[in-house]
Amino acid sequence: MMTRPFGHDIAHEVFIAAKPERVFDTITSAREWDAFFTNGMELQPQPGGKMVFRWKDWGPDFYTTEATCEIVTVDRPRLFAFRWWAVDQDHPTTVEFHLTPDYGGTVIRLREHGYPDTDKGRAMILECAAGWGEALALLKFYLEKGVTYEPPRKNL
């Protein structure tokens, strides 16, 4: 049985007071992602390269997970895109970071598309939409103010 596409995308926009080259170099570096959003990330920033998001004891729920991705497009400083399997192995979605110089900095337009019209697809689009909003806010604070992610301390 073929699953039809959900027909809705994740879309976020954010302004960052940094040049597109700086923003692009940040989102194509595992070390930089680890400063503001992940811990233990892998990233090979070329088409066909592997990217692995990792979170260990992340956030107030201390969750641990990882997501493997395949790099689709690396067009510095305009577009960075990857495909991942947020829903399941049969339904990859594509995440695109479109960077535009504007207002003395960079506007990022993030789009994720390809979610299936299934219960799991609808649940994941909500989870990922919230996650990308968090990631972009943390990216903005990191690039503009140097704020890095500080994990909560577990109560002993």
Write the layout of secondary structure elements.
Blueprint: E1 10-16, H1 20-27, H2 30-36, E2 42-43, E3 50-58, E4 63-75, E5 79-88, E6 91-102, E7 105-113, H3 119-145
Antiparallel strand pairs: 1-7, 2-3, 3-4, 4-5, 5-6, 6-7
Q: Which strand-content bin applies to the residues?
A: 35-45%
Q: What is the architecture at the second tier of CATH?
A: 2-Layer Sandwich
Return the domain count. Answer: 1
Instruction: Give me the secondary-structure category.
Output: alpha+beta
Q: Give me the count of strands.
A: 7
Euclidean distance between termini CA atoms: 50 Å
State the CATH topology.
Alpha-D-Glucose-1,6-Bisphosphate, Chain A, domain 4
Quick one: biggest sheet?
Answer: 7 strands, antiparallel
CATH superfamily: START domain
* Quaternary organisation: single chain
Strand and helix order: EHHEEEEEEH
